[in-house]
Amino acid sequence: MCGLLTYVSAAGAARAHANGMSEALESIHHRGPDETVVRVEGDDVVMGFKRLSIIDVEHSHQPLSYADGRYTITFNGEIYNYLELRAELAAEGAVFATEGDTEVIVAAYHQWGPAAVRRLRGMFAFVIWDRQDRVAFGARDPFGIKPLFHLVTEHGVFFASEKKALLPFATSGDTTINQASLAHYMTLQYVPEPGTLHRDIGRIGSGECFTYRPGGDGLAIRRYWRAEFRPTPQDHPEELYRRIREVLRESVRIHMRSDVPVGAFLSSGIDSTAVVALAREVNPRILTFTAALEVDGYSELPVAQESARHLGVTMHPISVTAQMMMDALPRIVWHLDEPVADPALIPLYYVARKASEHVTVALSGEGSDEFFAGYRVYREPLSLRPVSGLPAPMQRGLRAVSKAIPQGMKGKSFLERGTTPIEERYYGNARMYTEQEKATLLRQYDSSVQYTDVTAPIYAEAAHLGDVEKMQYIDVYTWLRGDILVKADRMSMANSLEVRVPFLDYNVFDVASTIPTDLKLPPRSADTKYALRRAMEGVVPPEIVNRVKLGFPTPIRVWLRGEMYEWATHVLDTSKAGHLIDLGYVRRLLHEHKRGAADYSRKIWTVLVFCLWYAIFVEGTIDPRPAPVASQLLSKPVVS
């Protein structure tokens, strides 16, 4: 895995940014500690690159040139079908100077043009400069596994793997905070794409590509792929289960292509256990890693250890304490770029650090819940059907009845939810502050900014689907790429570890998208991911097949009443973000939480993470950056 920073000048003044690019590139040193290169491509482009060597370690240096220097590419990611594409391109006359996947991308672009991006099977974010046609072309993978930020200025456009590398070139200061993004963060616990908390900086979306011509009409972004759920009735479910099993087996196999050691994360659930079981077929000696939180009801270690014993693989556990969470959180927020208030970040950070001591690549189970319907909330449309399936006039009557029922009385919530359309009821897995609460919390609350601004366009694309598939679609384009994949990328890259996610694969999705609702969530069962569980019978330990996944749970509910209370109070008391957030309101929530009046831990955590983000990226009062090491000495830009 790697980090890129590329600048395309609008008026042929790229050379003036070469030294600044070299300095900015060091902020993402952790993404590629093996090699640093900054190259000036004439007057138009500066390309900076940090390499973590995975494939063709001795060659495939970047920026990489192709076709006698016509093209130059910077690329972050892995193309898992690069060997097959290479053979196909060679048969069409392509000539290769390396054995890696980077050259395959640029050769495919030379041969097939922008259509090449749809042929790439993997995780990627890249920028190609075509010196002959004076155009930059780039893309991000279909599911948003790898990040790509952009900053458009009057002088040109910058692209980077992490936002922090763009900040030196952006307008600085508190006035640049995007208030709509802040409002969405307080609802969702992450900043939804394509925006960021910095008004001037955006993101290339998952499944999008772009072009930019110096002196042209600006950055042109278009979508090249969209997830299409197409549930199909199955006369022979066993054949579907076989197809799921085989497509996952093949995906894990190609995800293990590497010239460096590959390990895997292992938790208590079926997702990671399935990945490890299939990976073991390729490498019986694969190493596994898990995090343990020594609070009753929160540790996945005992079940993960039992799975490791059953599969015959070695496990390396790491215990995470409240003090470790407090110590690591500022560094973690710096690595995130954008605040993400998911407490699972911390154990993931530590398990990635443990894995990096032994391997360079680790497999993980992200994406399974969204593809195979693994979240329990997906059962809600089925449970609400007795009400939601009634004619509209009857629903309106029941809605009126629900308003007359006293708050807290049994049945009120059921009637309210059952008479509320899915488009208004569901906006993803995380639900922090309501609009009414945000009116108190946010100093600059704008009632015209609603969470539906994020979800409405996504629901419009899924209008033809049933409610369960609509929820899956919403999560693919919000929760998955806004929370799950951000934490996987940043926490692994913080430790110079590459994480690969075999579930998030074109071929796997093609099969998963056809599963009918009744085989994802059987009406007479409490199971989720039913089809996946049936497919994995005989592959994973029997006790795991039907076990509910914990998913790196963290006991902040417990710790904010104990070990973390004074720390949280200090963060709130010293924050300079009081003109944006009513910190007194949050202190009252913390006090009420401590005395056990209610569980406000997630709401409090959401604000704590933002306060740390503000202190790091706006106030500058906290500097958690790692100390420079010898390998981070600035490289002199290469002119070509």
What brief labels describe this structure?
18 strands; alpha/beta; six-stranded antiparallel β-sheet; Rossmann fold; about 40% helix; about 650 residues; Glutamine Phosphoribosylpyrophosphate, subunit 1, domain 1
What is the makeup of the main sheet? Answer: 7 strands, mixed
Strand order of the largest sheet: 10-8-9-1-3-2-18
Count of individual domains: 3
Per CATH, the superfamily of the largest domain is HUPs
Q: Which stretches are low in confidence, meaning pLDDT under 50 for 5 or more residues running?
A: 629-634
The first-to-last residue Cα distance is 25 Å
Task: Please give the share of residues in helix.
Answer: 40-55%
Care to count the β-strands? 18
Strand content: 15-25%
Which value, in Å, is the CA radius of gyration? Answer: 24 Å
Query: At the third CATH level, what is the topology name of the largest domain?
Result: Rossmann fold
The CATH class designation of the largest domain is: Alpha Beta
The shape, in one word, is globular
| Mean pLDDT value | 92
Structural class label: alpha/beta
Give a written overview of the molecule.
By secondary structure, the protein is an alpha/beta fold. It has three domains: 2-174 and 200-225, 4-Layer Sandwich (Glutamine Phosphoribosylpyrophosphate, subunit 1, domain 1), CATH 3.60.20; 237-374 and 484-545, HUPs (Rossmann fold), CATH 3.40.50; 378-428, no CATH class. It is 40% helix and 15% strand. It is built from 27 helices and 18 strands. The strands form three sheets. The protein has a seven-stranded mixed sheet with strand order 10-8-9-1-3-2-18, covered by helices on one side. The chain has a six-stranded antiparallel sheet with strand order 4-5-6-7-11-12. Helix 7 links the parallel strand 14 (287-293) and strand 15. Helix 2 crosses helix 3 (101-112). Mean pLDDT is 92; it is low at 629-634.
